[in-house]
Amino acid sequence: MPTVVFVNEGKAGIVPSGTTLLRAAVDLGVHISHVCGGNGICSTCRVEVVAGGENLTAINPQEIAYDLGSGRRLGCQARVLGNVGVRVLMVPKVEMD
Ligand code: FES
Predict the structure, then answer these.
(1) Is any atom of ligand 1 closer than 6 Å to the C-beta of 65?
(2) Is the pLDDT of residue 97 over 70?
(3) Domains contained in the chain, number
(4) Is 74 inside a domain boundary?
(5) What percent of the chain lies above the pLDDT cut of 90?
(6) Of 7, 22, 19, 5, whose CA–CA distance to 97 is shortest?
(7) 93 in a domain, yes or no?
(8) Is residue 43 part of a domain?
């Protein structure tokens, strides 16, 4: 199973292949905004991929619509297929879980 590293908080964990970066973050206790609850319509879950970008699923239409920029993904849309390291770009002011 793949390892996901969240470099902001120095947290890492092993997740089942196909897990979204958002799900991995929440399960590991990483602070990450996700205002729409993971439905791909708010873009607050965006992350910067710092390693292993090739180990994520292909960019999907929701991500293309947000024009996130090079190396940036929506945490709720990008699924982990292999080892990856990311940096959370928006930390919530209030936890919503
Ligand atoms: S949580 Fe809203 S786009 Fe990902």
Answers:
(1) no
(2) no
(3) 1
(4) yes
(5) 85
(6) 22
(7) no
(8) yes
- For the CA of 34, the nearest atom of ligand 1: 1
Three-state secondary structure call for residue 63: helix
The answer as to whether 94 is a domain residue is: no
What is the CATH classification number for the domain harbouring 81? 3.10.20.30
Residue 56, pLDDT score: 98
CB 95 within 8 A of CB 30: no
CA 39 to chain centroid, in Å, comes to 13
CA of 10 to the centre of ligand 1 (A): 22
Query: What pLDDT digit, counting tens, does each position of 51-81 carry?
Result: 999 999 999 998 999 889 999 999 999 999 9
User: Which H or E run includes 27?
Assistant: helix 21-28
| Domain hosting residue 84, numbered range | 3-88
Give yes or no for residue 36 CB within 6 A of ligand 1: yes
pLDDT band at 96; cut points 50, 70, 90: low
